Every structure is written in structure tokens, then in C-alpha cells.
Design the sequence.
């Protein structure tokens, strides 16, 4: 599914940030949130498993690292597997 979104985004002139490897390297649970902050990402697509791992470990990026600026983030997209309702609520609160 993300492949199709990526092609559509490129077709309208967007830039893509593709991340290959463990979402927990090199800075643990905050690796991807740090990247989102540094690159001022507006739309973030990730796996339900990653978001569920954040929930299981109660990782709240802005609370855990106040220097992160996620104010540019407009949407988070989940793919690969179903997102549990509790994780949806967690993401809604953890990424203000």
C-alpha cells in the first residue's frame, strides 16, 4: 500500500524520506521521531508493529525528548497489519 502512496506523492511533487533498517537503531525508540523532527516530515507512514512497540514501552517522543519538534507532522499512516484500537488512542496522545 505504501508503494502506491509513494508514487502518488512523487507525482504531485513531494519529497520522500525512505528508511531502511531497524526503526530502533541507532537511538532506540526515538530514532524515527528524531528523524521526523530533523527533516520536518509532514506525513509519516510506518508499521502497526512499530507503533505497538512504542505503546508497549510507553514511549512518548515529545515527553521523552522535549527538544523534538514534531509540529510539522500532519498525519501518521499505519500499514502492514491491523492497528489495535488502543494503539490508535496511544498514537493520538503520544504525537500531539
Sequence:
Amino acid at each position: 500500500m505504501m508503494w502506491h502512496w509513494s508514487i502518488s506523492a512523487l507525482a504531485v511533487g513531494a519529497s520522500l524520506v525512505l528508511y531502511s533498517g531497524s526503526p530502533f537503531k541507532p537511538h532506540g525508540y526515538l530514532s524515527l521521531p528524531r528523524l521526523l523532527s530533523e527533516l520536518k516530515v509532514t506525513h509519516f507512514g510506518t508499521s502497526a508493529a512499530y507503533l505497538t512497540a512504542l505503546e508497549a514501552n510507553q514511549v512518548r517522543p515529545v515527553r521523552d525528548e522535549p527538544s523534538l519538534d514534531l509540529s510539522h507532522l500532519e498525519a501518521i499512516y499505519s500499514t502492514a497489519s491491523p492497528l489495535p484500537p488502543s494503539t490508535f488512542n496511544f498514537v493520538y496522545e503520544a504525537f500531539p
